[in-house]
Automatic annotation (TrEMBL):
Family of the protein in this entry: Belongs to the IAA-amido conjugating enzyme family.
Protein name, as recorded: Indole-3-acetic acid-amido synthetase GH3.6
Domain of life of the native organism: Eukaryota
Ranges where the GH3 C-terminal domain occurs: 340-459
Keyword Phosphoprotein in record: no
Keyword terms: Ligase
Domain GH3 middle: from-to ranges: 252-324
Single GO molecular function: acid-amino acid ligase activity
Keyword Transcription regulation: no
Length: 484
């Protein structure tokens, strides 16, 4: 997406509005810090030599971010030193940010990450590495085997100050609390360790809603989940003026100086006759596809988000996020639409099944997020499955072929920061998708003439039916190709 320097001024302005809004509901947040897990990703250059990088990486490396941190801006008053955020090694960055957050735990009034998936990964990382973290807290050191970057080590050392055996003892007690139970659990670990924390700031709308149960688990059900702002790579849009509302009641108020906003009514969309609606003309209860014209050069660009007008703040319309148009799978910042998935699956089947005299009868997909990192699951019904079972590597290579056919954001998540796990194909027995259609027709009242196999499923009867008929499971054997 094209951007210009002054666009960062607008984004910084929007960030500066978040704390005043939050202070209306939770006063004195400026008296503490935020423990946010923020990371940069890889950069590249266009053929003409322009830098190309993720929008947040661009912001974290900008003078705007550095200036805000130097000025002790309340929004960017984080426990993480800037050096730990800018560390290119995700493992070192995560460890360092957690270590600083633990040492400064009494100052932490809010915790979060950009996406819910990233926050879950951070807490899971804590769960898997707490013994090393406690050792460093006790000794006042930074494990040189984990954090090898000297710049990061120096920045973290300034936070540690010295040994803290009392804090280490406390952390060990909390981390071991459930070890003797029949089902060890870290339920409520966030308020137990960061006892002054008032809320969890993460995006849990849209595809990220699948992580709400996991966040509630770690938050003990006592901390509100706050979706503070609405933004995308193309443009930053607006704020949630009622941040303590339930996640399914979030309404965003667009800031009209961020871009020129127009709206495409989704129920009246005709390809040959597009009638766009201005911000002041949207109707309560109507759903629209968001269209933006940005200062950086996008003209009437269809973002792909479907919004519903849920109310008004004075005369300003407020929108609830309905869905990302055509997106079927998402684990982290990746977004895979139906056409892209279809193309990747078809190509993999042609490459690996056809040479063995087999073919793909039908398929669907599922975003598996019960483990960290989450991963894509494809349910495949294969004609001549017996032949395929004789060569298990065929399906594993098919997994890799599908991954190779997905977009660069997905492959970056697999290769760069391991935010997405290996793709899995679960082969189901013959007749499975016929049984699913029968269920849809007889139990759900679907028309047999209009029935279409869902390309993505969620937990429920259809998912359980698919899982009950799995005959084998296969994972991608190696990382897909990706280069910055």
């Amino acid at each position: 997406m094209p951007t210009i320097d002054e666009e960062l001024d607008r984004k910084s302005h929007l960030y500066s509005l978040i704390m005043p809004v939050m202070n209306q509901f939770l006063p004195n947040l400026q008296n503490g810090k935020g423990m946010y897990f923020l990371f940069v990703k890889s950069e590249s250059k266009t053929p003409s030599g322009l830098p190309a990088r993720p929008v947040l990486t661009s912001y974290y490396k900008s003078r705007h971010f550095a200036r805000a941190r130097a000025a002790n801006d309340p929004y960017t008053n984080y426990t993480s030193p800037t050096e730990t955020i800018l560390c290119n090694d995700t493992h070192q960055s995560m460890y360092s940010q957690l270590l600083c957050g633990l040492v400064l735990r009494h100052e932490v009034l809010r915790v979060g990450a950009v996406f819910a998936s990233g926050f879950i990964r951070a807490i899971k990382f804590f769960e898997n590495n707490w013994t090393s973290l406690c050792k460093d807290v006790r000794n006042g050191t930074v494990d040189h085997r984990i954090v090898t970057d000297p710049v990061v080590r120096l920045a973290v050392s300034r936070v540690l100050v010295g040994p803290n055996p009392g804090l280490a003892d406390f952390l060990e007690r909390e981390c071991r609390r459930d070890d003797t139970s029949s089902s060890p659990s870290w339920r409520g670990i966030i308020p137990r360790v960061w006892s002054n924390c008032k809320y969890i700031d993460v995006i849990v709308t849209g595809a990220m809603s699948q992580y709400i149960p996991a966040i509630d688990h770690y938050g003990g059900g006592s901390l509100p989940l706050v979706c503070s702002m609405y933004a995308s790579s193309e443009c930053y849009f607006g704020l949630n003026l009622n941040p303590l509302c339930n996640p399914d009641e979030v309404l965003y108020t667009l800031v009209p100086t961020m871009a020129y906003f127009e709206f495409l009514p989704v129920d009246r969309f005709v390809e040959k006759e597009i009638k766009l609606v201005d911000l002041v003309d949207v109707k309560l209860g109507q759903e629209y596809e968001l269209v933006v014209t940005t200062y950086a050069g996008l003209y009437r660009y269809r973002v792909g988000d479907v919004l519903r007008v849920g109310g008004f703040k004075n005369k300003a319309p407020q929108f609830t996020f309905v869905c990302r148009k055509n997106v079927v799978l998402s684990i982290d910042s990746d977004k895979t639409d139906e056409v892209e998935l279809q193309t990747a699956v078809t190509r993999a089947a042609v490459q690996h099944l056809a040479p063995l005299g087999a073919s793909l009868v039908e398929y669907t997909s599922y975003a598996e997020t019960s483990n960290v990192p989450g991963h894509y699951v494809l349910f495949w019904e294969i004609d001549n499955g017996v032949m395929i079972e004789r060569s298990s590597s065929t399906v594993s290579e098919s997994c890799l072929a599908v991954e190779e056919g997905l977009n660069s954001v997905y492959r970056q998540g697999r290769v760069w920061d391991s935010s997405i796990g290996p793709l899995e194909i679960r082969v189901v027995e013959s007749g499975t998708f016929d049984a699913i259609m029968d269920h849809a027709v007889t139990e759900l009242g679907a028309s047999i003439n209009q029935y279409k196999t869902p390309r993505c499923v969620k937990r429920g009867p259809i998912f359980e039916m698919l899982n009950s008929r799995v005959v084998s499971s296969h994972f991608s054997p190696r990382l897909p190709k990706w280069a910055p």
